[in-house]
């Protein structure tokens, strides 16, 4: 797929994947409405069975599009964790050998799940450059088909289905909030809003400690993260050349949130929704809380993207925070 | 309602409450299947919106049956927490003044929720006797209608709807597991299995540190807890004269679990399902794990009854355990 997903592409992606993965629920509760002073509808991607994140949507859509010859070659990707788990699981279910390049410091819970799903992990040093080099090395050695975790239109079309389901379940949202890391979920959410609900504004949440998307929008070109420092381990990657233009064209704005704000949002979601939203998954809600005065009494959709937490390192229980 | 709920009573209770409360989801994942070596279907009562437990089912059924005159008098109950929250919320929605007698040492998260829902809390010393005395005192002073948290056939018929939904979503369960405290949920589950799926065996989980139900079954009469010592704060009450005969007649057996087993089950549920199941809510899964060899490759339903955790005191993170 060599073009920005069309409305029809997203409809077809949804049809393609929805026989394989269940629809995640949308949660609504009095306490969050009170906290935000609006009507808050949470798309619980963190409750996606087995993998605990939206990532399975894009992976399923991409792997279902492979030719038999490509399947035989096996597939290869890079990920700090949630994409890796989804990739390993979907590949296992389809009988495709899967290799995942993961940074050495990846969340151990996410690593364990990848191994349990039968994925082969190749470790690399943290950072964009070592990871990309390792992917090239493994690809040369194995001939596997490389599938980028977000900078791929099939992935973007798959991630777009989360917002599509949310808008189907709760029509007439005035605003949707998604987190931004590499931009796969955000660009998919933006395309869905543009095609299916153009009156819905989309804003994004991003950790201050990895604010490449915010700075890229300001600069008008993709800016890397020279250093990253955030508890939101799923959002430290920089934008890609396929996700950035979509974000540039459609996003209303990006809200940067501090780690302490992410941890506080996490705790509130754990207490009120009784789910273990991970730091990256709570960034959207943290962004909403930060700007809640702008959305007074509005109907708001929040995508809680993932729920894979290292329970021995719960940010809001760490003294160091 | 002065008789053990019939099949028709449970059907009517379900019709009565299901327009007011959403159907909780049933979760299934590979990791729990692997851990149990069976097919495990979790009824997520812990994800009940706002109140985080099944208790709203019984309360809704009971309060919907009050006469206008009874509503005007207001309602009164006793609870260590989850029933209290549900009671306060339902009463608020129906415009009925609600008073709840709670032990001084009740879980602070549960207390806060009761207050937020507009319930009036009257504190008492921990234990059955001081709580019952306080209920009598408040009743004499106010004339409020007393609704017992579990020893009431309207409550039992309401709680029975959790298992009814589980059996509708996953037919042909070979076994269902529920926790037992006062016995409202367990007796409702037993009646549902008896009427709607008589081939389904029902077992119960109970903390060793409050094993009155286990001992009552052995003795053939209701035995109190002389001392209680368990992290499962929702299960420390003793059986009632309405719940005990139903349990005696229909339960297969009761599995006692240690606090360390409850904490380990909790952690596994948090990691694998990404939900904050509370200790009492994890007792059913702990009981299943303890006897898993008996259910090899069977189709198993597990009711995860509640999700209200004091996040500053997560048992599997406490050093003292």
- Mind telling me the CATH class of the largest domain in chain A? Alpha Beta
Give me the strand/helix succession of chain A. Answer: HEHEHHEHEHEHEHEHEHHEHHE
CATH architecture of the largest domain in chain A: 3-Layer(aba) Sandwich
Number of strands of chain A: 10
Q: Provide the number of structural domains of chain A.
A: 2
Per the CATH scheme, the topology name of the largest domain in chain A is Rossmann fold
Number of helices of chain A: 13
Helix content of chain A: 40-55%
> Nearest-angstrom radius of gyration of chain A?
18 Å
| Low-pLDDT windows of residues of chain A | none
Strand order, main sheet of chain A: write it out. Answer: 1-2-10-7-8-9
Oligomer: homodimer
